[in-house]
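Protocol check, entry for the methods section draft. Step 1: assemble the input record (protein sequence plus ligand SMILES). Step 2: submit for complex structure prediction. Step 3: store the structure tokens unaltered in the notebook. Ligand used here: zinc ion. Step 1 record:
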Amino acid sequence: MKLPFTCPQCDQENRENGNFIPSIEQRDVIITNQITYEYTCSKGHQCFCVLQIERFEMLYKLAIHEFLENNFRACVINCAAALERFYEFFLQVVFHHYGYSSETFYEEIWLPIKDRSKRQEDLFKDTFIELTSIEKPPVLKDTHRKFRNHIVHQGEFPKKEQTRDFADTIFRIIGFGLYTLYKYCDSSLQGSTNSKDLREILVKIIMDVLDDNSINILFPLVIQICDELNSSQEVNHKK
Ligand SMILES: [Zn+2]
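Step 3, stored output:
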């Protein structure tokens, strides 16, 4: 999959020549469980980088990549995985907000439900309601749940439109969840994750789509969420 990388040596040389725009290049890498990657820039410099990206972001980016390659089954599988990893991310941030360290969260909260996706979703729902007092947490509807199970567990092949609809639903859930974290526990969002800024997460998620000039899918939604973030930030500044 193509990921954006920068070259520190090129950046250094550019700065010395008065050019302060970071060098960003797309590089094809094989995604692994590691967060460190080695690559060679177009000028032949050997680079080493640590990806500042959450697992759910990576899975969703992969899913979009696969959609654009017409691998709809793989897209659905990765979307479903992205959602489960997003629940974990959401819970980690909220429990950080409640005063749990990352270690305590993983030992006490996550370990007992680590291999139980139903219980993870239940905890996500309960935590969401407790945090926001909104009675309808963003989770999959039964029709999408059935669709996912047919693809993931029964080996079926989805159609393009069904896949787009499913990917869009997952994106809305993640987008709404991120917006909720931003609204209710912003400081924990900054402090407990790899990602520096929520807007950056949203933009990164969509990067592949933009790079492939196929901005029709999901992009309007990103704009909408970024707009909401902007206006809520303005409100905060005015206070
Ligand atoms: Zn370079």
